[in-house]
UniProtKB/TrEMBL annotation:
Pfam families: ADH_N. PROSITE patterns: ADH_ZINC (PS00059). It is an enzyme of class 1 (oxidoreductase). GO terms for molecular function: alcohol dehydrogenase (NAD+) activity; zinc ion binding. Its cofactor is Zn(2+). This is alcohol dehydrogenase. InterPro entries: ADH-like_N (IPR013154), ADH_Zn_CS (IPR002328), ADH_Zn_typ-2 (IPR014187), ER (IPR020843), GroES-like_sf (IPR011032), NAD(P)-bd_dom_sf (IPR036291). It comes from the Bacteria. NCBIfam families: adh_fam_2. The keyword Zinc applies.
Length: 327
């Protein structure tokens, strides 16, 4: 097999030839058809998260075909298309796992971070954390659903019954969950980097009620705001944009420091919440509604050996939607 490997933080990935992996008990081996590139991959490469597995193959928005079963596995079937997300394994016994909060597990494994991921031709995964993708016929457009879609969905659920939703950072997650907002009858308001006309036009093409820079106030007060950009300064900006009793949901795994802000913009029962990982129930819910709710997945494809280019282009904001590696 071939894999793009991170051997030290803040260094380019290197292509390696490796033996094709053999799945262990409870595992499956998957031939990767597509793997989307997530901002979390940048956080892994840049060493902005606590140290994980090293060396490691990044990538956690994986779509592929099951090739082999490990001991004790009967499903998903060999030959079946599956998706493999960020959450790769949980202990099943900690207080969080036993109270339906496996996203907060005390002893988890994460795909592409603490176990090898999908920037490769093959990957081994826990069979219990792979999702059947029957009816999802295009691996490239499906791959971003496995994190951008799932985290976007969990973030939207945490926004509650908000009818007017602000989306800060109009990238992979926002362009998917914006379409879910429209499908559910909500309005969405897109906040981009100041002056990013391309992202604003992308948002408007997907039905945004308004699109502007993150330094601009929206034309109306919002019921909730979801922040996908890893910029702590957006938290007070979003608090100023939401009405009394509104929520600001931080959807990323990493964010720069939140600056000091006056209590007055938090007062009147505004809330700031964070999203951590996902649960398998989140995935089942989102994958059930995605075929109807998400009409268009905007992607830019790269061959596997150009993974570094995809990461650089993501960092620089050179494309709309999501980058996808195709082995």
């Amino acid at each position: 097999m071939k894999a793009m490997v991170l051997s030290a933080y803040r260094t380019p990935l290197r292509m390696e030839e490796r033996p094709t992996p053999v799945p262990g008990p409870g595992e499956i081996r998957v031939r990767v058809e597509a793997c989307a590139v997530c901002r979390t991959d940048l956080h892994v490469v840049d060493g902005e998260l606590p140290p994980g597995k090293m060396p490691v193959v990044p990538g956690h928005e994986i779509v592929g075909i099951v090739e082999a079963h490990g001991e004790g596995v009967t499903a998903p079937a060999v030959g079946q298309r599956v998706g493999i997300p960020w959450l790769g394994h949980t202990c099943g016994t900690c207080p969080y796992c036993t109270s339906h909060r496996e996203n907060l597990c005390d002893d988890p494994l994460f795909t592409g971070y603490t176990r090898d991921g999908g920037f490769a031709t093959h990957v081994v995964a826990d069979a219990s954390y792979a999702f059947a993708l029957d009816g999802f016929d295009d691996p490239v457009s499906t791959a971003p659903l496995m994190c951008a879609g799932l985290i976007g969905w969990r973030s939207l659920k945490m926004a509650g019954e908000a009818r007017r939703v602000g989306l800060y950072g109009f990238g992979a997650a926002s362009h998917l969950i914006a379409q879910v907002c429209r499908w559910q009858g909500r309005e969405f308001y897109a906040f981009t980097s100041p002056g990013d006309q391309a992202a604003q036009q992308h948002a408007l093409s997907l039905g945004a009620s308004w699109a502007g820079g993150s330094d601009e106030p929206p034309p109306v007060l919002l019921d909730a705001a979801i922040i996908f950009a890893p910029v702590g300064a957006l938290v007070p900006a979003a608090l100023r944009a939401v009405r009394k009793g509104g929520r600001v949901v931080c959807g990323g795994i990493h964010m720069s420091d939140i600056p000091q802000f006056p209590y007055s913009i938090l007062w009147e029962e505004r809330q700031v919440l964070s999203v951590a990982n996902l649960t398998r129930d989140d995935a089942r819910e989102f994958l059930a509604l995605a075929p109807e709710a998400v009409a268009k997945v905007t992607t830019t494809t790269y061959p596997l050996e150009r993974a570094n280019d995809a990461l650089a282009d993501l960092r620089a904001g050179r494309f709309q939607g999501a980058a996808v590696l195709v082995p």
